[in-house]
Automatic annotation (TrEMBL):
NCBIfam families noted in UniProt: sigma70-ECF
Domain of life from the UniProt record: Bacteria
RNA polymerase sigma-70 region domain: residues covered: 205-244
Species name: Limnoglobus roseus
InterPro entries associated with the record: RNA_pol_sigma-70_dom, RNA_pol_sigma70_r4, RNA_pol_sigma_r3/r4-like, WH-like_DNA-bd_sf
Species classification: Bacteria, Pseudomonadati, Planctomycetota, Planctomycetia, Gemmatales
Any single biological process term in GO: DNA-templated transcription initiation
An MF annotation (GO) of this entry: DNA-binding transcription factor activity
Protein name: Sigma-70 family RNA polymerase sigma factor
Cited Pfam families: Sigma70_r4 (PF04545)
Gene3D superfamilies per the UniProt record, alphabetical: Winged helix-like DNA-binding domain superfamily/Winged helix DNA-binding domain
Length: 311
């Protein structure tokens, strides 16, 4: 059993005090008491120490601490609403997609052509953030050590959890070690080629459609709004939205399908392939991000009052 990290020295205690006040000043909406701050920082330094190959000191731990990510995690564990808002608004890498959308995109890859399983996977993971799935495991957020960015770490845990389930097929599975980046299943080279052709064609199609069409696509896909809800929001007849939706679908099949055929596609299920692959691309494309859709709505003098869909 790994020994606990020794108590901080006087200079390290001063660093902890400065960190506490820095976080209070910089992020006053996530207000935790000094007592709870000390409890959580002691807990997380020992989580990190248990996984480290060399003994951890308070100085080395604080040197590598992602303080905002740590505070957001602690705030969520403490039930502070502002912390959950920041977590929901977390962005992922170059795509600038929301964390929830990045989880959906990963679920699409883990469970291709199974939309129900994709949705269930994300929903179950959100519920596990602060509630353990068994008596022998900690909630996901209670396992975060603060030594890496929070959102990418959550994606890794999500991936490893479901890969473990896929490989064992039955029984309750403990969340695997979050330090082990288990790779996604290998995609056959031929499938990879068709995916690359699809992505290039789909992005060309998204570039060619108008802002109004992109707005409808985003409202229908990201927010899962019905045609009636979209029509009400935009102040148009439901039949107009229905026709535009059909036009978008037909144009996507025409443009993307045409490119696949040009490249030599000879399968019989081209429509199913396109519609299945399109889900992951629409989830991750920054042109359909929440911010972009909000700007498109604002240009029409509209505001979306629905919250980002919960999973």
């Amino acid at each position: 059993m790994t020994d606990a990290v020794p108590p901080p020295t006087a200079p390290e205690r001063l660093r902890l005090t400065l960190l506490f006040h820095h976080l209070r000043v910089q992020f006053p909406r996530i207000a935790i008491s000094r007592e709870r701050f000390d409890v959580h920082i002691d807990r997380t330094v020992n989580i990190f120490n248990a996984k480290s190959e060399t003994p951890v000191t308070w100085s080395s731990y604080l040197d590598g601490l992602y303080s905002l990510d740590w505070l957001v995690c602690v705030g969520c564990l403490e039930g502070i609403e502002a912390a959950w808002e920041l977590l929901f608004a977390a962005r992922m890498g170059r795509s600038d997609s929301l964390l929830i959308d990045a989880l959906r995109a990963r679920a699409v890859r883990l469970y291709p052509r199974n939309e129900e399983k994709q949705e269930t996977a994300v929903t179950e993971f959100w519920s596990s953030l602060i509630a353990s799935d068994s008596d022998h495991t900690l909630p996901v957020l209670a396992r975060y050590d603060g030594q890496r960015p929070l959102a990418p770490w959550l994606i890794r845990v999500f991936q490893n959890w479901h890969l473990s389930k896929l490989r064992q097929h039955s029984g309750t599975v403990t969340l695997p070690d979050d330090d082990i980046a288990m790779p996604l299943p290998t995609i056959p080279q031929e499938d990879t080629r068709w995916h690359e052709v699809f992505v290039a064609a789909a992005r060309d199609w998204l570039t060619a459609i108008s802002d109004s069409e992109r707005l409808i696509l985003g409202l229908r896909w990201r927010y899962k709004m019905s045609q009636r809800e979209v029509a009400h929001l935009l102040g148009v007849h439901e039949g107009t939205i229905s026709r535009q939706t059909d036009k978008l679908r037909d144009k996507a099949l025409e443009v993307i399908g045409g490119r696949l055929v040009e490249e030599g596609w000879a399968g019989d299920d081209i429509e199913q392939f396109i519609l299945t692959e399109l889900g992951g691309l629409l989830t991750d494309d920054p042109r359909l991000s929440a911010d972009v859709l909000s700007r498109l709505l604002a240009a029409k003098g509209k505001t979306l009052t629905l919250a980002e869909p919960e999973e």
